[in-house]
TrEMBL record:
Keyword Cell membrane: yes
Taxonomic source organism: Paraburkholderia solisilvae
Positions of the DUF883 domain: 14-64, 77-105
Family: Belongs to the ElaB/YgaM/YqjD family.
Upper lineage: Bacteria, Pseudomonadati, Pseudomonadota, Betaproteobacteria, Burkholderiales
Protein name from the UniProt record: DUF883 domain-containing protein
Keywords in alphabetical order: Cell inner membrane, Cell membrane, Membrane, Transmembrane, Transmembrane helix
Membrane-spanning residues: none
Compartments where located: Cell inner membrane
Chief site of localization: membrane
Length: 105
């Protein structure tokens, strides 16, 4: 994985996490607003419900995009390993060696 791909993946994960937090907070605000009477609060509830629905859709889209990306990376990795088994073995051995050196310190 290149540094750019890794940063992009981390950025997507951060967006999904932020959307999750925002969704949870919005649902909590809607729950608290449900106990308040008044016309202004009804408008607030409706706006919060709209935001929650939008966030849920955005979160579902982001998760689907992340899953497609992970599946694509898996397929590409498997294809590379099947086409270049000795190189893949060498890379794995080198990574294992480096990890062993780092752990031994």
């Amino acid at each position: 994985m290149t540094a750019t791909t890794e940063q992009f993946s981390l950025g997507k994960q951060k967006i999904v996490e932020d959307l999750n937090v925002l969704l949870t907070d919005s649902e909590e605000m809607l729950r608290l607003a449900a106990a308040l009477p008044g016309e202004g609060v009804d408008a607030l509830r409706e706006r919060l419900r709209t935001h929650i629905d939008t966030l849920q859709a955005a979160l579902a889209d982001a998760q689907a995009a992340a899953q497609r990306g992970y599946r694509s990376a898996t397929v590409q990795t498997e294809r590379y390993v099947r086409q270049n088994p000795w190189q893949a073995l060498g890379i794995a051995a080198g990574a294992g060696f480096l990890l062993g050196v780092l752990v031994a310190r």
